[in-house]
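Quick start: what a row looks like.
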Amino acid sequence: MNAMTQDNLRSAFGGESQAHMRYRIWGEKAKKDGFPNVERLFLATSDAEQVHATLHFKALADIHGDFSVISGGGFGLGTTSENLQGAINGELFEVGQMYPAYLAVAEMQGEKEAVKAMRFAVAAEQVHADRFTEAKSAVDAGRDIDAENILMCPVCGYITFDTEVDCCPICNAKSSIFVAY
């Protein structure tokens, strides 16, 4: 497959992924505004966009035949260990390169809400990388990760396996609002 088609698939994957999330967020807003059927429409369309993103993702993986993670860009479908390494690489890229650059610009421009959001994200992304690293170590040893509980802070995205934590170490939200998975 030629490079232009590959670039187009990556772009389409990104657009469909963003639409998937945008519709979920808009669905939550519709529900809060008292429109449950509009929420359901947004959620159904969100899931349809996920189908599109998945098709584009698989097409990118098929380009390389072996389903390995493609050129560090996070595309492809490899073994669980390879996919975990791709997730680790992506999280560490965000922590080490992407968010520090974005944060510097937001600080320079005095965008307080953007700075807050990015500080939460960079701290949470480091934790995500740590959790994926734990999972990869387990998978590489032939076992599942030892995580009876997986909890996520809905304020900043922090993830923990510890049910004894009182509040989020990133944003100080009470653990009583954490979402269990």
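That is the whole record. Residues 66-72 have pLDDT under 50 and may be disordered. The radius of gyration is 18 Å.
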